[in-house]
Amino acid sequence: MSTLSIRWRLSLVFALAVAGIVIAFGIILILITRQQLLARTDAALREELRELLLEAALHQSVNDFQTAAQTRFYHHDIYDFAVVDQQDSIVFVSAGLTPERGLQLANDHGTKSAVFSTHQLSESSTVRSAQSELNSKFGNLRVFSVTSLQPLLTEMRTLQTVAACLVPVWLIIAVGVGYTIAGRALAPVTAICETANAITIDSLHRRIEVPNPHDELGTLAETLNSLIARLDRAVGEIKRFTADASHELRTPLAALKLEAELALRNERSPHQYRASLGVIVEETNRLCRLADQLLNLSREDAGVVQPMEDRVPLHAVLSDLIQQLQPRAFERSIKLTADRIYPCEVIGNDIRLRQVFLNLLENALKFTQANGSVRVQCECHEDMIVCGVQDTGTGIAAEHLPLIFGRFYRADMARNCESGGVGLGLSIAQRIVKAHGGTIDVCSEVNCGTSVVVTLPGRMIPSSADTDSGSAEILTAVQHSEMTA
Hints:
The chain is α+β, with helices and mostly antiparallel strands and 485 residues long. It has helices at 6-58, 62-72, 99-109, 150-198, 216-265, 270-301, 314-331, 350-366, 413-419, 425-435, 464-484, and strands at residues 79-85, 90-93, 115-122, 125-136, 139-148, 310-313, 335-341, 344-348, 373-381, 384-391, 439-445, 449-457, 459-460. Helix content is 58%, strand content 19%.
């Protein structure tokens, strides 16, 4: 049955259900009909028995009773009668019964209370009898009224034959009706399949029609539409990513080609060759950074999960980065300070977390003018660690804030190109923070500065040794920054 279509399977199930109902109804009908016919037969037997009992009660002697019974009860089209005395001798028997069958009835009953019974007198003769006892003036009698069950059995066989013939008819009708109903019910599935097959990579904007959103097929159509919408967004992101990556690769490659052509075109001095090589090295480094970032993103997209089981002392990571970037801050006359960095640790990947905060600090230094400042904070609130990087740079316009985590997105294209950025840093940072179960939020105001807050699950380090070590590292960073300022 598994090889059949759903339409045929539904049709057969419907047909079997109807057949079961029809058969059950037929059996119940036959039983009820049989019971009613027997009840009607028993009522008639009781009435005939009552008349024979009245006749026996009216007479004083056996001879008088026999004479009267011969006149009224000997010949009857439907019923036969028998009367037996205490010695099991036949007192009266009608024309349809022999004395032997009368005695057989008496022996079959085996009781003197009023009962009904069915007897098989012969292979072709089945009768129903009623019996009662009478204390007459000429002795105790057992009186029987009898009728043949052949008419009843004939009616029952006719009813059973009709019912048996109707079952296959109803089964055929049920299959036809079930097939039609299933076809109408599954018609939207055909429409859904046709529409889904017609949707290609170039027509992902199309959607499946949802005639009834409240039934199962409507839910299926809405689910498929949701899937198509996600595919549309994913394909759009891939196209944009490919276009942006091509553009970003084209710029340094064009610069490399231009510098190489200029160097080869004419004879140049050693100083000019060194300058050209410097440009080539700078653009090569830019290509390497872009390749590394693209590799990280591709790993994230492919679901490559790096181990995140290290106990990372976040305060030490921030202190190391502050010391590492102090020379760059000094060159640009920017005050880089550590403000309220408390000893705390995170369970995660040390290299990836270092990459997050290095990116945030480099961005802050890139877009902060001379004599500006960059502050770093790290505090622990219950089971969450809150780290902030705040600068006094140029800031980001409000309309750009929702978009800054997009790949290759840069609020100021020209400024980012000059600084060597390609717009992948924040996107990578957001993915790393989310992988660690945290969040990253940005607040900014044009010409006032930007504040980036990273929240990660972690805890404060209670050990006094770790606290002293962390405090010493922070103090060193603060002193160094104050000296350079």
